[in-house]
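Build the 3D complex.
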Amino acid sequence: MKLKDWIAPFYVWKRAFEKPFTVPKPLKERPGSPRYRGFHQNDLDTCIGCGTCSSICQNHAIDMVPVDGIETHKGDSGLRPRIDYGRCCWCALCVDICPTTSLSMSNEYVWIDTDADVFRFIPGSEKKPWDSFKKGYKREEEYQLVDPRRIEMEMLPPEERVKSFLEMVKGYSREQAQKEADRCIQCGICTATCPAHMDIPGYIKAVRENKIEDGLKLMYETNPMPAMCGRVCTHQCEEDCALAHTGDAISIRWLKRYLADQVELDDYSKAMPVDILSNGKQIAIIGAGPGGLSAAYYLRLLGYEITIYEANDKGGGMTRYGIPEYRLPYDQLDKDIEYILSLGVEIKYNTRVGKDISFQEIHKESDAVLISIGLMLPYKMEIPGEDLPGNISGLEVLDKITRGEKVHFEEKVAVIGGGNVAMDSARTARTFGADVTVLYRRRIEDMPADEEEIIDAQQEKVTFITQAIPLRIEQAEDKRLSFIYGLAEMVDQGEGKRPKPVLIEGKEFSIVVDMVISAIGQGADFSFLPMEYEKLFSRKNQLKIDEFFRTRDSKIFASGDIANQTKDAISAIADGHRAARSIDHFLKNL
Amino acid sequence: MKNRDREKFPNVLNGIPVIDLESQKFLKVWQGPQHPGVTGNISLEVTLSGDEVVDLKTHVGYLHRGFEKLMERRKYLQCFTIVCRICVPEPDTNEYVFAAATEELAGITIPEKAKWLRTLVLEMARLASFLMWIGGQAGALGMGTIAQWTVAQRDYILDLFEELTGARVYHMYMVPGGVRGDIPDGFIEHVEKVMKGVEKVLYDVEIALLNNAIFKMRAKGLGYISKAMVDEYGIVGPNARAAGLARDIRKDSPYLIYDQLDFNVITGTHSDALERTFVRFREMLQCVSLIRQVINKMPRNGAYYTHIPNPLHWKIPAGETYVRAEASRGEYGYYMVSDGTEYPRRVQVRGPSYTHAIAVLEKLAIGTNLADLAGLMVSLHTCPPEIER
Ligand SMILES: Cc1cc2nc3c(=O)[nH]c(=O)nc-3n(C[C@H](O)[C@H](O)[C@H](O)COP(=O)(O)OP(=O)(O)OC[C@H]3O[C@@H](n4cnc5c(N)ncnc54)[C@H](O)[C@@H]3O)c2cc1C
Ligand code: SF4
Ligand code: SF4
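Done.
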């Protein structure tokens, strides 16, 4: 031991004169660091109640509860997270995974109360001093637990697309599909939005786990036409996908297509073994569109004997005679239909009710009748010159092409309308080399057509003239037509309503074309119903149906485009399913 | 042990000492489970003859939280939030080995910058842990003041953690795939300021403790670990290095960016409590140097996180691995088995305290004075939470 060892320690007596480390009373609160994981904040207007925060919390600290003033609506479960601070460990995984970024943390960390129950609270709903704190843990932009970008779908390039009717969407490979399916957070917001309430998280899980047959079976529980819907569904589900709030929605439609594409038709019966016990009851369905086919499928599974009367020589309705082949190849539609037929559903083709067979006869012979005749009559523009040669409706164009009939698209074509029929007609005309201009009354953003359709049309060099109101059509030189239109001004109609196009008087423009295709909407053709059924209508061409899809005649039901507002394939399928359940219910309880 | 002393010891029958308390030769004393110098709880059942320890049994079980089992029912990312709790004074080693094992089994490579940030955090954690320990070491041998200084410095490091990770104690920063955030503005300056403060206090500690006759006299010869014991008992870290063995995972199988840092393995020769104090003291200075190296050399740009598959249903292919790192107490490792599901099949935590605080302590305690027992236990840097996972 050295002398130093005895003396040196006294050196640190100098510390007696230094500032102490301890904080003197009264205790002053130091704010948490800017990244501090303190008490939760939730922006209730941004939150959609998806519950993903609750799924990831390993402490089960979050449950989803209803909150005063927040209603369940499309894209929002109406629930909000309630956090139990007796369980929370402030890991912030809930913040990290929140797809809307509504959930975050403040840098506040002192909360004192004598009532233990208050520490289970609904951030954002119960007002707290830290609600407005800017500092605290927020998920960094770069750090995202779920990939915000979708796997891009490979498509034929626009130059190739306009050359043929080859299917333009190529479909996912297994690897791509599984990667895309991996992004799903399984919140189920989409299921609520889907008109058919398909178990979307369920079948996406099947893709992820490569349980293809399970996925197929699951899809058929709510949708017996997945090969068709997997290609052309209006995919409202994707609009409400939780991930779409800060990134790309899951490609739900393409994943559905992927599942359907993986199983050959011959293997369907293996994947979905059915044992149908006939109950001997007869159901007549008018129209083999998605609505009729869907009802037929579910009724058949319940044991009913089904006869579908179809005016055309093939099934599918508008999905065949309307939607062009580059979007929906006919063999895919055939696959869906053939499977339904394989269960013992009978279709009488080329049988127009009202012409080839009377409605009364069908009504008499069946226990119930389902009308699903779709909208086959194109609306007229109601302007002068509409009957001049060179005028044709979009539905007629598409119908002729499907039937393999010749349509002479001359050099320049005008398409009137902004819906899917207009886009399909315009793009079809492009495929035949025409120079196509679409004229629409409102703005691009008001078009009812799918956004993708509009973009695809633009890529294929279709010209758009918007806010154009048709005035008249005049004969021009060389058998051409002069399409005269006025300009519209968009007049606001109040919140939640589409602005209305109002003609600006005095200004006229014209475009000289070889062909005018009108596609401004279509209506149903009820001429097959004899006069005695007048009572079924609430107003002109509008059947009165109740919540069970039943008309004023207790034996007659309706589904599809004539029975819903959305007028797309999946809504028709959903109606078909519901109508089938109602028919079953009513027949069982007779 | 001199032969004449043997008479104080209990007779041994079939390898088990027979302690006849009735004989009034022995006294049983329970120490703990709370110990001022040790984080967590552990109980010592001491048998004394006079004031000399003749037998020691360690009792654990006060801290069992069942983490290993919990993890078998948690998804991988959910496990990330609980592993830090296994060791309070140095949670980050747990975070690192868990993330690294997960990444290895899942075949994920993390970005360069994440490696630097992880190294920074690990060294800060080692330093914080040592600062806490030296307070305990000094306190156990009669110098409570040292703890006042060093624990205050640890608090400043916790401030740094709070700034970088968002929490003071359970940082939850090294998420599988990288880290959760970049360095905040002004952080580097704050690190430098804290390091200066730590150095200043360490200078004082050196004078007051390492040059302190009383401390030296009490620590010298206390808890001697022979070289042979090191392998026999699985002794690691400063406890092994003080015995002259240059073993350090950071050098022996470098992980993260340790191979790009300039440092030597610190060893000693005398292998007693005093030597271990010297070794750990020099390792603290080494931490300061490494922290400075990291913040100076660290890439300023680039990603700090790479996408892992969606954590809600992340399945990791079947496999097993053992990933280890050098904690302040020595080799710390996770043996992890995945079975292809969303949950780890088994996570086995190997903390150095298991041997140090049980087998080694039970052996070294024999023959020591009761008053030195606490000093001996702290000199092995025991951390009960990592014994009971
Ligand atoms: C051009 C075009 C593009 C479209 N694109 C899409 C799209 O991309 N996505 C989407 O979801 N929806 C799209 N739709 C809408 C979709 O096709 C319809 O919503 C859906 O087909 C409606 O199904 P449904 O069963 O009500 O009737 P329809 O599909 O219209 O079927 C009705 C069937 O009834 C038959 N029928 C009618 N009257 C009689 C009678 N008296 N006797 C016997 N049979 C009769 C018809 O021949 C027809 O087969 C599009 C429609 C058109 C026209
Ligand atoms: S994850 Fe976000 S959006 Fe979803 S319920 Fe929780 S807080 Fe709301
Ligand atoms: S911070 Fe962690 S423990 Fe707390 S509610 Fe969120 S996920 Fe659950």
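Chain A touches chain B at residues 1, 4-6, 8-9, 11-12, 15, 21, 32-37, 52, 55-56, 58, 89-93, 96-97, 105, 137, 140, 142-147, 182-186, 205, 208 (CB under 8 Å).
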